Amino acid sequence: MIEYRNLRVALLGAGSVGSQVATLMLEHSDELAARIGAGLELIGIAVRNVDAPRPDTVPRELLTTDAESLILGADIVVELMGGIEPARSYLLQALSSGADVVTGNKALLANHGPELFDAAEQVGAQLYYEAAVGGAIPIIRPLRDSLAGDRVQRILGIVNGTTNFVLDRMDSEGESLEAALAVATELGYAEADPTADVGGYDAAQKAGILASLAFHTVVPASAVHREGIEGITLDTVVQARNGGYVVKLLAIAERIVDPISGEDGVSARVYPALIPRTHPLAAVRGANNAVFVEAEAAGPLMFYGAGAGGVQTASAVLGDVVSAARRHVAGGPGVGESTHAELPALPIDAIRTRYQITLSVVDQPGVLAAIATIFSEQGVSVEAVQQGAPGGDDPTATLVIVTHEETEADLAATVRELEKSDVVTRVVSVLRVEGL
Ligand code: HSE
After folding, report:
1. Where would a tag sit more exposed on the chain, N or C end, judged by fewer CB atoms within 10 A?
2. Whole-number pLDDT of residue 334
3. Is domain 351-433 annotated with CATH 3.30.70.260?
């Protein structure tokens, strides 16, 4: 048997994921070499500060602040620094020198993916990014390879652990959003700036990556409609529970027909939505992630597991390192980016979905008829109405109205009319209903 030379691996970043990648790569080196058919040599770990506290399993002698020299000597560059710069420049340098790249950097891929894929293609290098979406969950490779013979129709993903943890605590423990977020931050789930989680920015980057892969089209983060969970109150969560729903921050990627052109396009969007408690995604608790894929031939598939965490995400990174290393040993080009479909990314106005509108109304005869007239004048069809009992001396009642599938524009016009109506004291919440 031919003995293949050791493959040189440069690691950029030794934070919670990077230090676990280094640890596992060194601890499991014999096993990895047997699986690859060549050894992996960790030639160095580029960090900003060599004196920052790290686990003892990360050898101090491998730490360097000179990332550029490290990249020059590598066959595989693993980037786990996060952020756009200098990560982008380092990866372009690595790819232009012919090294394969493994990254977990969702922000970089969502904003500069095409530039990196082009650089890789020019030299026949590979770009792997399983860790960028869903932490430990294998979802990039299933979409890119396993489902390459099928047609994906829709993806519904819970791809942000922090917001799922927060919404789950509100639902199961009756905690406020602020209290639950403080726990998530303490447990280390949240991004350095939790606005990235709560505002849906992290999920939007992941939605763009999933939509691009699923629909063979470039969908940058800027084309993803984004709404966060800031406005979700405990009352909304409790009321959803009473109605048989749970509130989840969903990342949705869907192939739909553009109502204007009549042509197919891609809708990528992130917003808090109601899903029935019987839907498989409703069972995703705590900081876990899940991606529910609906494919034409395969039908519904669900990928579930730890969406964050150092050692869990390191598993996905190491899987990519093994893939890159195997290609070095076997030779030949790998899989490039697939963007042949070139579908337009459609605005939120192109979608049709169901809505739940909660109203505080005057509790007197004729109110229901007045509300029904507003819906019918806007051409919005009501599927169900539920009336909550007024509390004590409260002169108002709560009406919860669920519509059939409608457009965003018709829904917005209806809400505007409801706000103007004398019988409506307040539009309490408007939420989309998904997963039906
Ligand atoms: N802050 C992210 C989350 C980490 O909560 O899911 C993983 O991307």
Report:
1. N
2. 67
3. yes
Atom of ligand 1 nearest to the CA of 206: 8
Cα(312)–Cα(131) distance, integer angstroms: 9
Domain 140-307: state its class.
Answer: alpha beta
Question: Which two tokens mark 426?
Answer: 């307040």
- Ligand 1 centre and the CA of 287: distance in Å? 8
pLDDT at 396: 87
Contact 19, 58 (CB under 8 A): yes
Q: Which atom of ligand 1 is nearest to the CA of 163?
A: 5
Cα-based distances in Å from 228 to 194, 198, 225, 260, 287? 11, 6, 10, 27, 16
With a 6 Å cutoff on the Cβ, whether 160 touches ligand 1 is yes
Element at 353 (helix H, strand E): strand 352-362
CATH topology of domain 7-133+311-330: Rossmann fold (3.40.50)
Q: Tell me phi and psi for residue 392, to 5 degrees.
A: 55, -120
**Could you state, in order of their start, the residue ranges of all structural domains in the chain?**
7-133+311-330, 140-307, 351-433
- pLDDT value for 395: 77
pTM: 0.94
20 lines ligand 1 (CB under 6 A): no
pLDDT < 70: residue spans in the chain: 1-2, 334-335, 389-393
Query: Helix H segments across 83-215?
Result: 87-96, 106-123, 140-141, 161-173, 177-186, 195-198, 201-215
Closest-lying ligand 1 atom to the alpha carbon of residue 162:
5
The reply to whether ligand 1 has any atom less than 6 angstroms from the CB of 288 is no
